[in-house]
Amino acid sequence: MHRVLVRIVLAGGSVRDLCQAVAGFFGGAALVTTTDGRVLSIAGDESEVERVSALDCFDRTGRLVVEDEPVGARAPGTPGSTRAFVRIVAGSADHGLLGAFSPERPLTPADVHLLERAATVAALAITKEQAVAAVEGKYRAEFLRDALAGRAGEGADAVAHAASLGWDIARPMVVVVAETDENDEETTRSPDEVRSLQERFVRAWVQAVRARDPSVPVAGFSQEVVALLPTGPEPGTDALLRTVGDIAKVVRGDGGGGRRTFSTGVSRTVSSVAELPAAYDEALTAVHVGRQMHGESALAHFDGLGIYRLLALVPDGADLRRFVEESLGELATDDSPENADLRRTLSVLIDTNLNVAETARRLFFHYNTLRYRVAKLERMLGPFTSDPQLRLTLALALRIHEMRGL
């Protein structure tokens, strides 16, 4: 095995080459993961890879649950004794885990020692790949930033430049922005930890996007990741949100491995490079307003923001709070369960254009019970059933009341 490892090093072998060598030695499967458990490479016979991938040490997104997997060999006969993991370390940098899976026999300390030797080769391969990726990523990120700022040049030139980077932007696409919910400017984390977490966030998005389509532009900026996803054969909003949601699910990985929550915004479809700056603004708006509408881990499309797009333009949340308090009075508070119940009744009434029968059906109330509630609401708020301006005011106040983070 030592001679095999030396050959891999001298040939400038990749992580994939190493996994194949380790899998062949153990007669099973081998993999390399990031520190948070994302599988970078896995090798072995197809049947063995399928068996390993179905083990309970992986979550439903395919992430290795590193929090529950010890490093080293387990005692023979104990659960998990036919697999072993070692850390891939280069200097002070932790690059992840190298794991070996045997079909039957328990792995011994001698096997772990061999894995540790192989992990040294893995560290060399990963360090080389990261160095190359860092240079390539810098040029890609600079081009994408220029394109989003309208500085990428004429359409044909920008398309050609993107193609030289391995990206395809000559097709209908949407701008997707994913932004961490934690504000790094107000965090108590150290700068090194923040940088490490952001790099992990970017790598997760790049890997998830490239697994679907390697020609999709994707890069990380500060607290966000930006991707230009093609709209595909189903350009509708629902189809786009499903696609983006699937990618976000892979990146999120059930939230394990020290991953931070993030919100995602999607722009309208664009068909040219010149439209990218406006689409980028739309995606940013969708991220920020979506987080206010739904809280952390929100996913929003710009066309689905509705009136919230205008409400989000108000710079001072105190102004919005005062508007809600003045419009809804005591219903603006949650001092009693009845207030929330009455707000719900008022909201459905307005949504049904004051159709009492339909509102009673939706809320499962008796018709007379609802009429009593309408009378009570008018005593509290005014004659909204006959005053359209008051109805508009109350409708806006209810929408603002639903927003988070004011």
Number of domains: 3
Class of secondary structure makeup = alpha+beta
Amino-to-carboxy terminus distance:
61 Å
The side-by-side strand order for the widest beta sheet comes to 6-7-5-8-9
Q: Note poorly predicted spans.
A: none
CATH topology of the largest domain: the name is Alpha-Beta Plaits
User: Tell me, what is the CATH class of the largest domain?
Assistant: Alpha Beta
Rg (CA only) = 27 Å
SSE ordering: HHEEHEEHHEHEEHEHEHHHHHH
CATH architecture of the largest domain: 2-Layer Sandwich
CATH superfamily of the largest domain: Reverse transcriptase/Diguanylate cyclase domain
Largest sheet: 5 strands, mixed
Number of helices: 14
Number of separate strands = 9
Helical content, roughly? 40-55%
Report the mean per-residue pLDDT as an integer.
Answer: 86
Task: Give the CA-based shape.
Answer: elongated
Task: Determine the strand fraction and express it as a percent band.
Answer: 5-15%
Domain CdaR GGDEF-like: 150-289
Organism: Fodinibacter luteus
Pfam families: GGDEF_2, HTH_30
Protein name: PucR family transcriptional regulator
Give a quick summary of the entry.
The protein has 406 residues and is α+β, with helices and mostly antiparallel strands.
